[in-house]
Amino acid sequence: MEHDVVIIGGGAAGLTAGIYAVRAGLDAIVIEKGVAGGLMAEAPSVENYPGFRSIGGMELAQKIAEHSRDYVNILEGVEVISARRDDDMFIINTSNGMIRSRAVIIATGTKHRTLGIDGEERLRGRGVSYCATCDGFFFRGKKVLVIGGGDSAIKEALYLMNIGCDVTVVHRRDKLRAEHAVQEQFFNSGGEVIWNATVSRIVGESFVEGAVINKEGKEEIIKADGIFIAIGEVPQTDIALGLGVHLDDNGYILVDKTQRTNIGYVYAAGDVTGGVRQIVVACAEGAVAALSAYEDLKRV
């Protein structure tokens, strides 16, 4: 298959890039290794996306994906294995075959950051989770710990509280990093926090039974049925590195204000570029990246 532009990643940025690319007259395709929507689909609720006072992340992801499908073909469940430049074309090797394109938009987003502690991987899916909307239902009426103190952690905690979980947040600092409105909602709902504490290990045989908490040098076991980890994300940049794209000191793709990278006809958009990692920003960057690709390709 040959296209004007291949968009790698089907989150907010990639889906929006697909809309704008096709509307600009480009032959585009979106490749997503999972399900269209990305991490946006895991947000319990979104209250700062214009046009919706409050909407579930999954619902918003579905709406954007449905809109995108009106314009662009989305290959779901297809993984991009590698990408390279061959003369004036890019060769994209995927789990579903090879694709050639004149330009590439990288919108690969981020993946969940892990604690890297004993018991985390062993009990993943057996009480250890990174997504409250995905797994929270199984913990209704049970005790859970949410690890983290930013927006995502506190929103996860609020969601779990709302569906009937007994929630305690474990945060390594003495104050939360979540935005004020989210913190206010959390504390007004009776939210509890273990301050200045870290998780040393997760305990349990077949399923999570609790966690060892280190607070000011002293360890104690806190019993819990579930551990929800929300400590940030790591940019997915393997494809970018393979193309020779430059990254910043934190591992995010470097772009200019037009979403162009240091490699000609390679653009990047969304969370993989760092900065303000919000859905509305990802959409805007996806649109800009697609229009920049159009401007460059029409001059060839």
Textual characterization of the structure:
The strands form 4 sheets. Strands 1, 2, 3, 4, 5, 6 and 17 form a 7-stranded mixed sheet that branches. A 5-stranded parallel sheet has the order 8-15-9-10-11, with helices on one face. Strands 12-13-14 form a 3-stranded antiparallel sheet, with no helix packed on it. It contains 7 helices and 17 strands. It starts with a strand and ends with a helix. It is elongated and about 65 Å long. It has 300 residues and is of the alpha/beta class. The chain has helices spanning 12-23, 57-69, 132-135, 151-162, 180-188, 238-242, 279-298; strands at 2-8, 28-32, 73-76, 80-86, 89-94, 97-106, 110-112, 128-129, 143-147, 166-170, 192-194, 197-203, 210-215, 218-223, 226-229, 233-235, 266-268.
Keywords:
300 residues, alpha/beta, seven-stranded mixed β-sheet, five-stranded parallel β-sheet, 17 strands, 29% strand
Topology:
Layout: E1 2-8, H1 12-23, E2 28-32, H2 57-69, E3 73-76, E4 80-86, E5 89-94, E6 97-106, E7 110-112, E8 128-129, H3 132-135, E9 143-147, H4 151-162, E10 166-170, H5 180-188, E11 192-194, E12 197-203, E13 210-215, E14 218-223, E15 226-229, E16 233-235, H6 238-242, E17 266-268, H7 279-298
Parallel strand pairs: 1-2, 1-6, 2-3, 6-17, 8-15, 9-10, 9-15, 10-11
Antiparallel strand pairs: 4-5, 5-6, 7-16, 12-13, 13-14
